[in-house]
Amino acid sequence: MKVMTMMVLALVALGCSDEHGEEEGCPELCEQAVECPGDATTEQSCLAMCSADTEAAEEAGCHDAWDSYLECRNHAEDNCDPAKYDEECSIQKESLNSCLDRS
Q: Which PROSITE patterns match (predicted)?
């Protein structure tokens, strides 16, 4: 059962990506975030927060789950609406949260 769950997570992660590299993670997400109407987030504050989250995920041993979540978020249909991107990336978010909870 565990192997099947991992295979499903991998397939969904691939479906959410457009084969962009990991190097786009935080910078791409923050570029999109500052363009959201009514959001007072600056690119610098977003990058700082994203870098801190990246470091926390790496320290918890959740690098792959974090990358998968970032990849999905970067390619979500609507990155300005948390309800929409949380639904679209729900499997990646659940995987990341499960990993973080285990550490």
A: PROKAR_LIPOPROTEIN (PS51257)
Rounded to the nearest integer, the mean pLDDT of the chain is 80
pLDDT digits (tens, 9 = 90+) for 35-72: 999 888 899 999 999 999 999 999 999 999 999 999 99
Distances (CA, A) of 78 to 5, 19, 46, 65, 81: 26, 19, 17, 21, 6
Which residue, 72, 99, 77, is CA-closest to 11?
A: 72
pTM score: 0.72
How far apart are the C-alpha atoms of 44 and 58, rounded to whole Å?
21
Residue 30, CA distances (Å) to 84, 93, 103 in order: 17, 18, 27
Classify the C-alpha dihedral 36-69-101-53 as positive or negative.
negative
